[in-house]
Amino acid sequence: MSDNRPDLAAYVVRDREDKKATWREIGVAFKHKDGKGFDLLLDATPTNGRVVLREIEEKAE
Fold first, then answer.
1. Single pTM value for the model
2. Structural domain tally of the chain?
3. Which of 3, 4, 38, 60 is the most interior residue, by most CB within 10 Å?
4. Could you read off the pLDDT of 19-41 as tens digits, one per residue?
């Protein structure tokens, strides 16, 4: 976390019958300096679905 960028993006994922699951970004996670945990900062609190943490991919310019 030396550059103060988040390590992971947080998404709420809702599975739908006969449709693709919907993914909505709801926050980010920062790895602790000791490498033993994360701080999770959420912009929204999911009421159903599941929370998925994924590595943030660099965007091609």
1. 0.81
2. 1
3. 38
4. 899 999 999 999 999 999 999 99
